[in-house]
Amino acid sequence: MVDMGKSYGGFHFKAAFTLAEPGITVVFGPSGAGKTTLLNLLAGLSQPDWGFIRYQERTFFDAAKKLFVPPEKRRLSCVFQESRLFSHFSVRNNLLFPARFGGRPLEPGSFDRVVELLGLEGLLDRRTITLSGGEAQRVAIGRALLAKGQLLLMDEPLSSLDRERKTELLGYIAAIPQRFGTPTLYVTHAEDELERLADRVLTIEGGQCHLLSRHEFFNSQLPLAG
Amino acid sequence: MTLSEIGRELGSFPTRLTLMVGLFCLGLHLVVSLPLAFYLSGPKNWARRILAFLVTLPLVFPPIALGFILLSLLGRNGLVGAPLESWLGLRIVFSQAGVIFAGYIAGLPLFVRPLAAALRRAEIKKLTQAARTLGAGPLTTALTVTAPQVSQVLGSGLLLALARGVGEVGVTMMLGGNIVGRSNTLSLEIFNSVSHGEFDRAMALCFILAVCGLVFYLLFEKITPNGE
After folding, report:
1. Is residue A29 within 8 Å of residue A193, measured between CB atoms?
2. In terms of CATH, what superfamily is B16-176?
3. What's the pLDDT score for residue A224?
4. Where are the beta strands (DSSP E) in chain A?
């Protein structure tokens, strides 16, 4: 449950919604509408000016109580536009980072399950700089899954990929809620991704949020820019 | 200059003192300068501006002048020196602590400035953010992600700072006093030899420093193969 705001450089961002679970909620809106801002605020990578953020009985931020929980304690996993893999580690060690350094021990079988779901078998001993864009993003998704966040935040993870890679990865992403039971917040401005993935849609425009069911969204006559 | 002369100088007090200064500077850079660079890479505010100015001072201010100011500050009656001596019993001026301090601040900007600049790069910030969302706290992130990502700048800056620090003369002379058997480093000993007319000895000392310089250069080239 979120009710918060942040202002920067003359732009006022406001968000108030209660996230229903499980499945994929697509955060949809034109570029510059504040989608990435929303994700950064949820993840704890930036701090709202006012309001509160609560998720599953936990308060992450409360301006009135001067409470701010840092990102590593929120247990939310992130996949960013760029893969943000650690180039000084192999693919395998990137995947094991949350278990080794993030205090998120592996559950039995979870490593193999992630590797299998994302088709990473052949990549494990590769250096990350040798990966293609699609491969790197698959590893980044795997790493986020192994961080066992209670919510998976994805910020336009396919925006830098070509059409073919994108289609392939959409299949992987669509399978995540069912296979791992992790509710997902998926940011995009691409309508094909929205159509493929959305159980619900959180529209953002001009710094304002509205949460709609998939049905409501597709029946609405709201003119939404792509 | 003969081999036996070089051998004798290798075991002499100035060589041992210079080696000790190098080791202490290395420790100080890792314990003090490294966190300082991390701090300076944060958003600009007044505290950071003032610190950045102080860190850069040894690059833009003549060493002799800086040495004199430090001597006034750290001396027995100085603003900092007096309380240091009466409370901690620590005397920096005309001691080996002074020589170490001089070598340390001479190298400080060469280590901290490039490192802070590297840490401010957007891609480094992004990787740091990613590590935090994967559960790693600030210190773990700094050690396992940030530092390895800037290891080239870290290593090369450290080498340059050490090379500069052990060869320092101006501040070292002012703070250490160039006292034979207490604060005469290799570089100062060259000055002393020349002023006594011992040119062969000065040449032997130069030879030792030249070999050290070559080793520093080769290590530097190995760390930064692209000359960055």
Report:
1. no
2. MetI-like (1.10.3720.10)
3. 53
4. 2-8, 11-17, 24-28, 50-55, 58-62, 67-68, 76-79, 151-155, 184-188, 200-205, 208-213
Residue with the two structure tokens 């891609």: B123
Task: List own/partner pairs for B128-132 with CB under 8 A and 24 or more apart.
Answer: B129/A45, B129/A71, B129/A84, B130/A78, B130/A80, B130/A84, B130/A86, B131/A86, B131/A97, B131/A101, B131/A102, B132/A44, B132/A45, B132/A70, B132/A71, B132/A72
For chain B positions 99-138, those within 8 Å of chain A (CB to CB) are 126-127, 129-138
What's the mean per-residue pLDDT of chain B? 92
The three-state secondary structure class of A140 is: helix
Contact B149 A87 (CB under 8 A): yes
Averaged pLDDT for residues B174-194: 91
Q: Using the beta-carbon criterion (under 8 Å), do A76 and B127 form an inter-chain contact?
A: no
Q: How many other C-beta atoms are found inside a 10 Å radius of the C-beta of residue A95?
A: 26
Nearest to B132 among A71, A87, A104 (CB): A71
Q: Which residues of B15-47 are buried (b: 16+ CB within 10 A; e: fewer)?
A: bebbebbbebbbebbeeebbebbbebbeeeeee
Answer whether residue B138 shows pLDDT above 70: yes
Q: What is the pLDDT of residue A226?
A: 46
For chain A, which residues score pLDDT lower than 50?
Answer: 226
Structural domains of chain A sorted by starting position, each given as residue range(s) with its CATH number in brackets: 2-85+149-219 (3.40.50.300)
pLDDT at B228 over 60: no
